[in-house]
């Protein structure tokens, strides 16, 4: 069972998400928050698998709350999906930098939302539409990539897989592209995260662009 917390300052929005998600046999909504501070409190008390987080909320915004949750080692199992109506470079990049595992616009189709929750709950893939990945690339392109000595710690195969992750490929797609098994692909990604001291694939994508390893323009 996937335990969820919904954080949005609009009760009607929370009710809509609850109606969609609680109808799934493998999901349950454990709690709701109307502001960022309450979202953090519920995360610590309920330890949900996935927390759906609005960005613009009173008291503390979603980025602040996400940053606090993801920085708390005791909440390592809590994955955050940012849900917003605002499609802007700063929000996308800020959400991923804060530690969010996904970024979705609120006009997403119900089936896509349900799929997103399942994917993020298993920690298996970066959840973002192609437009979001493109915005991350555009934002990173404005930075001057610093040296990345951490790359020396990766094997040739791990570097190859890093490039595929940065391009937005899932573990299934990586396995198919490299003619390896899914468990092998997943193990390689986990080792890369450990070596680079990163939380998840979302942060790995940002790191790849900031370090200059990934080149903006790779993504469709």
Structural write-up:
With 220 residues, the protein is of the alpha/beta class. It folds into two domains: 2-123, Rossmann fold; 144-210, Winged helix-like DNA-binding domain superfamily/Winged helix DNA-binding domain (Arc Repressor Mutant, subunit A). The protein is built from ten helices and five strands. A five-stranded parallel beta sheet has the order 2-1-3-4-5, sandwiched between helices. α3 links the parallel β3 and β4. α8 (171-178) crosses α9 (182-196).
Count of alpha/pi helices = 10
Output the strand order for the largest sheet: 2-1-3-4-5
What do we call the CATH homologous superfamily of the largest domain? Response regulator
Strand content: 5-15%
Provide the domain count: 2
> Average pLDDT value?
84
Question: N-to-C terminal Cα separation, in Å?
Answer: 35 Å
| Relative helix content | 40-55%
Low-pLDDT residue intervals, each spanning 5 or more residues? none
Radius of gyration: 17 Å
In CATH, the topology of the largest domain is named Rossmann fold
Major sheet attributes: 5 strands, parallel
Second-tier CATH architecture of the largest domain:
3-Layer(aba) Sandwich
What is the CATH C-level name of the largest domain?
Answer: Alpha Beta
Order of helices and strands: EHEHEHEHEHHHHHH
Global morphology:
globular
Q: Which class of secondary structure composition applies to the elements? A: alpha/beta
According to DSSP, the number of beta strands is: 5
């Amino acid at each position: 069972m996937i335990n969820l917390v919904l954080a949005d300052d609009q009760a009607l929005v929370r009710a809509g998400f609850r109606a969609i998600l609680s109808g799934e046999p493998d999901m349950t909504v454990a709690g709701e928050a109307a502001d960022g501070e309450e979202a953090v409190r519920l995360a610590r008390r309920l330890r949900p698998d996935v927390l759906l987080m609005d960005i613009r909320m009173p008291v503390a915004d979603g980025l602040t709350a996400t940053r606090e949750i993801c920085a708390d080692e005791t909440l390592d199992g809590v994955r955050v999906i940012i849900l917003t109506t605002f499609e802007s470079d700063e929000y996308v990049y800020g959400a991923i930098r804060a530690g969010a595992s996904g970024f979705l616009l609120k006009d997403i189709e119900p089936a896509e939302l349900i799929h997103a929750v399942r994917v993020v709950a298993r920690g298996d893939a970066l959840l973002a539409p192609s437009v979001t990945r493109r915005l991350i690339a555009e934002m990173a392109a404005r930075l001057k990539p610093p040296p990345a000595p951490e790359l020396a710690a990766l094997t040739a195969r791990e570097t190859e897989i890093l490039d595929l992750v940065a391009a937005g490929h899932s573990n299934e797609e990586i396995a198919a592209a490299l003619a390896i098994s899914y468990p092998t692909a997943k193990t390689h990604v986990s080792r890369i995260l450990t070596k680079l001291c990163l939380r998840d694939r979302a942060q790995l994508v940002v790191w790849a662009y900031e370090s200059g390893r990934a080149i903006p323009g790779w993504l469709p």
